[in-house]
Every structure is written in C-alpha cells, then in structure tokens.
Specification:
Strand order of the largest sheet: 3-2-1-4-5-6-7
Helix content: 25-40%
Oligomer: single chain
CATH topology: Rossmann fold
Strand content: 15-25%
Structural class: alpha/beta
Largest sheet: 7 strands, mixed
C-alpha cells in the first residue's frame, strides 16, 4: 500500500477531494494530514474522515525533526501539498526528493511565487486580462512554485468573471485532476 501525507492549512477542499478519491483504493491510502493551523477546515475534514492529524508550529517545521519524524515513522511515500503556504524546509526536500507535489491555481510560471495564492492569483489573472488560466501540479523544490511541472489543465477566463467565479472553475479542475495525477505518480494508472 502506498501512503500519502497531505499538508494543508486552509479550508481543506482539496484534502477532502483526495481523501474521498482514495477512501477505498486498493493501492493508495491517505495516512496523515499535517497542518500548522489547529481548527482549520482541513483539520476538521480529516477528523471526520478518521485520518490522523499531526499539528505543528512553524518553529517545529523549521527547527526540529518533529514533522520529518512523523513522515518517516508512518512510512510516507508521497507528500501532497493542498493549500499549504509555508515553504517546505530543505530537510524534507532532501529526504523526499522528487516525492513532494503541490497544486497551484494558475498556469505556472505565471502568477506563482511567494504571496501568490488563492484569490490573489485570480485577481491578478483578471487584472492582467488573461484569456486562459487553470491549474499546475508540480514537484516541490526549495523555491515557491519553481519545481518541474507534472501536469496542467486550463479553463477560459470569461469577460464577466470575478475572482470568486473564476476560483470556482479553477477549483473544479483541482478536484478533478489532482487525485488522478497523485494516483498516476504512485501506481502508474
């Protein structure tokens, strides 16, 4: 059985989409949710799904082996970022090189980097008059949104789009494609 750890600190809709996709999978399981935000939507969703939660502080992520220890103890094969905004420390990148993935709500390399997340991305896409946006699933390295691209999917930016309406269509792409890309990475289906 391949084991996934998901890092999330927001509402947890991508976490939930992934957890549901793999709930009865024969080869992959979501083993842990790791979060720096107690009480977040992601934590609440994990508890409802009966998926163990590991909470940590920013200091524990960067200055201790707590997070890495939990990943190794639980024999995690792939780390999945789903609305996690902290930069992954070098110790995790070294241990899980090529086995940490993230999803970004734009077509990287556009609209990526520190501070570009959520509605900020959609606002920038609309403000700059883009006709196309979408999602990028990529490997994580030591810089925000710079790792190699694994998969992209697109949607049109409509003339009357608001950041909220665009966000809904991009989120549909995330929920549709992220679990399938994770599955392909782990079992090749």
């Amino acid at each position: 059985m391949k084991r996934i750890a998901i890092f999330a600190s927001g509402s947890g809709t991508n976490f939930q989409s992934i957890a549901r996709y793999f709930r009865h999978h024969k080869e992959v399981e979501v083993s842990l949710l790791l979060s720096n935000k107690p009480g977040s939507g992601a934590v609440c969703r994990a508890e409802k799904e009966n998926i163990p939660v590991v909470l940590f502080t920013k200091g524990e992520l960067y200055n201790s082996n707590k997070v890495l220890g939990q990943l190794l103890e639980n024999r995690i094969d792939l780390i999945v970022l789903a609305g996690f905004l902290l930069l992954i420390p070098q110790s995790l990148i070294s241990e899980y090189e090529g086995r940490i993935v993230n999803i970004h709500p734009a077509l990287l390399p556009k609209y990526g980097g520190k501070g570009m997340y959520g509605m900020k991305v959609h606002e920038a896409v609309i403000r700059n008059g883009e006709n196309l946006t979408g999602i990028t699933i990529h490997c994580v390295d030591e810089e925000y949104d710079r790792g190699s691209i694994i998969f992209q999917a697109t949607c049109n930016v409509l003339p009357d789009d608001t950041p909220e309406s665009l966000s809904k269509r991009v989120q549909e792409l995330e929920h549709k494609h992220y679990p399938r890309v994770i599955e392909k990475l782990l079992v090749g289906n």
